[in-house]
Structures are given as C-alpha cells and as structure tokens.
Amino acid sequence: MGKKAVSRESYRTHCHVSMDEPGSAGELADCLAGHIRERVTDKDIILVCIGTDRSTGDSLGPLTGSKLLEKQLENFYIYGTLQHPVHAVNLEETLSIIAAEHPHAFIIAVDACLGYLQNVGKVTLNEGGVTPGAAMKKKLPMVGDMHINGIVNVSGMMEYFVLQNTRLYTIDTMASLIAESFLLADRSISKQHVLQEKEATTPPVTFHNDDDHARFLREASSAEQTDDKHKKSHHRYRRK
Predict the structure, then answer these.
(1) Region Disordered: which residues (predicted)?
(2) For the whole model, what pTM was predicted?
C-alpha cells in the first residue's frame, strides 16, 4: 500500500491513464516500454507486486502479479502473487533475495495507493521508488527504480477501513489494465531485441561501382513487385 495522494508526491509522473478509458493499456505500455529502452541495458527487469490478499484494496499488487504470471512474459521476473504475496512482513527478505539472484537489476514496483476522489481509478507510471505502507504509517524500505500506482480509493481518514471497503471490481479492472500493459510492453521489447540481433548479424552491403548498386536496386524492386503480385493473387483466392 503506497503513499496516499499522488498529486502531492515529489516524484515525476511519466504518464497516467484511467481504467475506464479505451486504449489505456496501450498508452501505458508505450510509456513503459519507452522508458525501459532508455534506461535498461543488460539488466534483469524485476516486477515487485506489493500488497496482500487479506485486504481488497491492498490486493492490487498480488492480483496483478498473478495475472502477469499467466501471460508468461519474456523480459520480466515477477515477485508478488496471490499465492505468494509480497507484503510488510516479507518485503525486506524478498528484496534481499532479488539482490542476490538479480544483481544490479532494474526494479519496477506495482502497488495500490489512496488519493483524491477525482483520481480514483487512475493508474500512474512514476519515476523512482515507492514507500509501501506509508498510508498505514508503516516504516518499510523504498522499492523500485520506477513504480506503478493504482489509485484504488479515497485518502484522508480511516485508511484501513477504506481499503477493506474498496470494490473488488475496481481492483480487478485495474489489475487487468496493468497486466495487459506489461504484456504489450513485453512484446515491444522482444521485437526490439529481434531487430537489434538481426542488425548485428546482417553484414553490410557494399558496392564496388555504380553498376553494382543499380543492379541491386533492380533486383530489390523486382522481388518487391513479385511479392505484391503474390499477395494480390492470395487475396483474390480468399474472396472466392
């Protein structure tokens, strides 16, 4: 459970989306993949999904983690699920395990938080770490190089009871949104890796003279026209 009011934090918010808006998962995924490409090279990427399944409002993290495990991501390691949640009791131990098994990893934390009424239902991608349990006055270590917050309910008074009375629909919808955005980002990152490997293994084309260059262009154009004819023929066949 993260800090209370997102708009009061000193960290930089890279993007924010609403769980009810179409295309939110794609928008969050683009932002997420872009920042990972900028900041992560040759590092394991760890998702620490923080929370507990004993409180509806605080179950956003572990529910997201379980949904992510089902998607079998290629570029992310998942810590924190409904079966094995990461919470106040085992957070420090989990971070020690991550440090031992994934040295110098890039960590993205996923956590629920409380905020202003007009922000409930929004998901934000933020720079820096999150402090779990701050809304409940718990002293826990900061987690993450980046973090995603889902604003699940209103802050202000009696946070424990507010979390207990948060709608499961809200949590499930936000968890699905976050999980889908990571899936899309994962595909984008994998595609980028394939292109980079292809560029690294493809020898450069060299031309000894202008005739060689002209011949190469003619052959490439001929191959492209042949491919176009094949596609048109295929489409005509499908229409029949």
Answers:
(1) 196-240
(2) 0.77
